[in-house]
Amino acid sequence: MFGWFGNKNKEVDINFANIGVDMHSHILPGIDDGAQNIDQSLILASHFSNLGFTKLVATPHIMADYYRNTPETIGRALDTLQEALLKNNSALNVQAAAEYYVDEAFEKKLNQKELLTFGNNFVLFELSFINPPQNLIDMLYRIQDAGYVPVLAHPERYPYYGSIENYLQIRDSGCNLQINTIALTGYYGPEARKMAEELVDYNAVDFIGSDMHHPKHAAALKKSLELPRVQKLISEGLLNKSLL
């Protein structure tokens, strides 16, 4: 599993490191639908390094029906990756939080204040891609009342919201929005691309993330970083840099 970090040449201009920290990836080995083993984790890590990233926040899924991760399972996977990075002489700094699916288990963890966070008590969460949640705005206020700062993952991928006005309302309710930059390449289709573009154009993007699961995402990420809208986000400032 060694040798992934032998090439010191960056794939793209080092200015892309100005993004700061990638705060949404599935690089931890064997605990969700991302990297399935440590070799795959190291391949993804090498892609991040070659793109100029020095720090990541890994965010494995926590979903009651599929990925029943806990702080313990996430911590063990993080330890495994950190040890492997050290053996491979990689300077990549990987920390961990989670990507929560909003379900009954999430609400229980919220009530007990047991959520994994990153940065300034940020909590990354996702919604169903098919069915709109009930009372999302109320949930956002509950998250904040518990002392957390909500961050909605990949808003461009929820077709039922349909218009930028709905996302502006969500953001005005105290929720940060994190787009997947690869959506701007058309990776998820034209509708997701159009919404991602609108979110950028309305200055409604707080974080960008790779949501990297596998090398195809890495290739799309490289392409996305060259897009004018991504360069606009980087130049105007993102909360990613606050995580350094």
Automatic annotation (TrEMBL):
Q: Does the keyword Transmembrane helix apply?
A: no
Gene Ontology MF terms? manganese ion binding; protein tyrosine phosphatase activity
Q: What is its EC number?
A: 3.1.3.48
Say which family it is in. Belongs to the metallo-dependent hydrolases superfamily. CpsB/CapC family.
**What keywords appear on the UniProt entry?**
Hydrolase
What top-tier enzyme class does this entry carry? Answer: hydrolase
The protein's annotated catalytic reaction(s) are: O-phospho-L-tyrosyl-[protein] + H2O = L-tyrosyl-[protein] + phosphate
**InterPro entries, per the entry:** Caps_polysacc_synth_CpsB/CapC, Pol/histidinol_Pase-like
Q: Source organism's superkingdom?
A: Bacteria
The protein's name:
protein-tyrosine-phosphatase
Q: SUPFAM superfamilies per the record? A: PHP domain-like (SSF89550)
